[in-house]
Fold this sequence. Notes:
- The protein is 30% helix and 29% strand.
- By secondary structure, it is α+β, with helices and mostly antiparallel strands.
- A 7-stranded mixed β-sheet has the order 3-4-5-6-7-8-9, with helices on both faces.
Amino acid sequence: MNKNLTTAIQAALDAGQVIMEVYEAPFDVEIKDDNSPLTIADKKANDVINSYLIPTEIPIISEENKQLDYSQRKQWEQCWIVDPLDGTKEFIKRNGEFTVNIALTHLGVPKLGVIYAPYTRELYFAQTDLEKAWKVNMPDSYESLESLLESAYLIQPKADDRQMRIVGSRSHLNDETKEYIEALATAKEKEIVSKGSSLKFCLVAEGKADVYPRFAPTMEWDTAAGQAICEAVGVHVVALPSNSPMRYNKENLLNPWFLVSKEL
Length: 264
């Protein structure tokens, strides 16, 4: 397995541990300049992840790092894209649907992706050049990372003959998304599958949902790891309205609207 992937997995697991230490105790919530919430868990998880990724000497774009100007970033062939705590709103609500997201991109294309849900102890990871993505249901204890990864199993998307399962955000199901769902032409019964954070990508990648439309703002760190996991198993993540693959380390780190689906 790719060394950078195992580094990212260990970083995500250790970040998840410090997140849960905060989750299980009282914590304060700050409001950032963009009106998004921030907790000490975001900061601590970011410190842990940086401690693993900085030694790789690959530059890092993280939600909680100071963002460099594009005049510097555009020179990068590859970079890490990190959300140390995706789903901070879900974390604050204490519904368990939050994740650690770590991706490695090359020339704007996700190559490796790790998503760890520390509350449910579900670990997803992918290497796109192998066209494989895996999942591990974390045990209470394990001897080594190597032994843990030996228990991983491959995931694949799969259709439901009876239902069209559409992923809706737990906190962001807006009117545009509702209109898309209503207009979706299908003979199947439509089912809305609600989920927070980047776990929405994982639902499609592992065959628990068929399509994930996102017609609301997201940032690159919200999607890069999920895109790697989806694309490794043949699920498309396309920007709208261009229907072109989502790209990363853009001048503007804000994503366009996008659609996640096995079918284009």
